[in-house]
Amino acid sequence: MRLGRADYTEMPWANGKGRTVELWREDGPQGLRFRLSMASVVEDGDFSLFPGIDRVLTVLSGPGFGLVGDGIDLRCDLLVPAAFPGDVALRAVDVTAPVEDFNVMTARDLPAPEVRVVQAGQYVPPQGGRLFVFDLASQGLEISEAPVTASGPSLLVLTRF
């Protein structure tokens, strides 16, 4: 399945202080199970809380920023996936220019996805899992249970559920 910008949904952040573009979402009886989204971070501020959710954030453009709170001091740099719990009060700091990011949110009881930046080539999903390939140039998303060929630099999300 291939999705593009016309297939995505824009919505307000859970904390109401910004907007996100939701690319893919799966819900279960208790709510959010898995989500891929993009957002802009334009100033220092609190991140939304997502109880029971683990997150992986990858800066797609801009200088990056810090993420701090409750014993966490994390640097979010360009094209380096950064994992953190979604139910800890965190604050973006040192935002010096607008940053576009890609978020992977996964219910904590699911196997953690693997998130990495890759170049052009063929990629194979894990056994029993799926492959999500986000093309950095076109911002198109391909979802497959079979091998996928990336045409250029992409963000790869491998799930085992």
TrEMBL record:
Q: Which Gene3D superfamilies match?
A: Jelly Rolls
Coiled coil, from the record: none
**Domain of life of the organism in this record?**
Bacteria
InterPro entries, per database record: RmlC-like_jellyroll, RmlC_Cupin_sf, Uncharacterised_HutD/Ves
Output this protein's name. Answer: HutD family protein
Task: Please tell me the species this chain comes from.
Answer: Gemmobacter lutimaris
